[in-house]
Design brief:
The complex is a heterodimer of chains A (94) and B (285).
Chain A lengths: L8 H17 L5 E2 L1 H18 L12 E3 L2 E2 L2 H17 L2 E2 L1
Chain B lengths: L8 H22 L10 H6 L8 H9 L1 H22 L29 H23 L8 H19 L9 H17 L1 H8 L23 H8 L3 E6 L2 E6 L3 H25 L9
Antiparallel strand pairs in B: 1-2
The chains are: A mainly alpha (94), B mainly alpha (285).
């Protein structure tokens, strides 16, 4: 298991996904209950597992945990960014 | 915006920007003479180890980046013109006073009678759809995807949200924001041509990947600082049978993000015009 990425590209996109998520998240309004927020996060982890880390990613920071277990951290990061962006705009969690 | 608003500093900035783009793009076209070879696949296959895993995307944006830029422009201009035709009030085009503006109330669905499945699961689906759109644009250097696809996916999320929740849509984007998204996206794409032009004379040359520096006849050289600035953040280690090669997609992710925002702005603007019609007072609540 490689902890640090061999190349910066494995991390950059996760950070970009977070900030782009914030940009679009500021356009989300309305109430989102804690239960729904949790549901979204869990679904994002499941989806990230299905999408997998892209080819030529090899570190934990890139989403690769073992040979056949990898997560698309970009997806999870984008979802978190969207939720954070929504909170920044004034959205509430019930 | 009216013509007289362009008389101030905005007009000067717009004129300077247009001049830079005009001279950059057209002088790039002039340099094409003698530098265009038919059947470029062989050359690009030789470059494969220097490219990020999505070889095809690198080809597309290297070989016909300007073409895609113009396509992006066509989409944005097309959307704005469509909105001008479909919903004059929305973009505040001046109409003759005697010409009555038809006022149509915006869509307003009753969420209290909505099926439970839609009421409680639509918003999570919208959030996940937007995230999927972002994933698609950011996966462009490593797999299928790109700005157009991201724009369409996020626009679908916008439409889904409006169809289900009506005026109370939780994913509501104001028309000014949509116009700003489109303009920002197109501007970002155009701006990414400038470093390549300054370094090599070719507009949209991928300074981060710098694929053609190995060709001795290639005019101009990309400074190391510029290559590092646009290339290093997207560097990936390609572990191939022949060995480990470090390759970057260069400016490709940035222009894809620009393209995505352009398409989001354009397509959502058209949806916006269809949904809110001619009324200039109706906006997303």
């Amino acid at each position: 298991m490689t902890i640090f990425p061999l190349a910066l590209g494995e991390v950059t996109f996760t950070i970009l996904a977070f900030f782009l998520g914030i940009v679009l998240g500021t356009q989300l309004k309305g109430m989102l209950s804690r239960r729904t927020t949790l549901l979204v996060l869990i679904m994002s982890v499941v989806a990230a597992f299905l999408f997998e880390a892209p080819v030529h990613y090899s570190s934990v920071l890139g989403g690769v945990f073992a040979e056949h277990i990898s997560f698309s951290l970009k997806f999870i990061s984008a979802v978190i960014g969207l939720l954070v962006g929504r909170l920044l705009r004034g959205g509430e969690v019930q | 915006m009216e013509i007289k608003e362009l008389r101030g500093i905005k007009g000067v900035v717009a004129a300077v920007a247009l001049l830079i783009i005009f001279f950059g793009v057209f002088s790039s076209f002039l340099q094409l003479e003698g530098n265009v070879a038919r059947g470029i696949s062989e050359q690009y296959n030789k470059l494969a180890y220097r490219m990020a895993p999505n070889n095809l995307a690198s080809w597309v944006y290297d070989y016909r980046g300007i073409d895609t830029l113009l396509e992006t422009g066509v989409i944005y201009v097309g959307a704005v013109v469509s909105v001008l035709v479909l919903g004059r009030g929305l973009v505040r085009l001046k109409v003759p006073e005697e010409d009555e503006v038809v006022r149509v109330s915006g869509m307003d669905l009753k969420t209290e009678t909505m099926p439970v499945l839609l009421k409680y699961f639509a918003l999570p689906v919208v959030v996940l759809l937007i995230a999927y759109g972002l994933l698609v644009v950011l996966e462009a250097p490593t797999s299928g995807g790109g700005g157009f696809q991201c724009g369409v996916i996020v626009s679908s999320a916008y439409l889904l949200s409006v169809i289900i929740y009506g005026k109370k849509s939780p994913f509501s984007i104001k028309k000014k924001t949509l116009v700003a998204f489109g303009a920002f996206g197109w501007g970002l794409y155009v701006l990414m041509g400038l470093p390549g032009y300054l370094a090599t004379g070719y507009w949209q040359y991928n300074v981060g990947a710098d694929l053609w520096s190995w060709v001795s006849t290639f005019p101009g050289a990309v400074p190391e600082a510029l290559r590092a600035l646009f290339g290093d953040p997207f560097m990936l280690a390609l572990q191939l049978r022949e060995g480990v090669y470090y390759a970057t997609s260069g400016i490709l992710p940035i222009i894809n993000i620009g393209e995505a925002f352009n398409v989001i702005g354009a397509i959502c603007l058209i949806f916006f015009a269809f949904i809110y019609g001619w009324s200039d007072s109706e906006e997303v609540a």
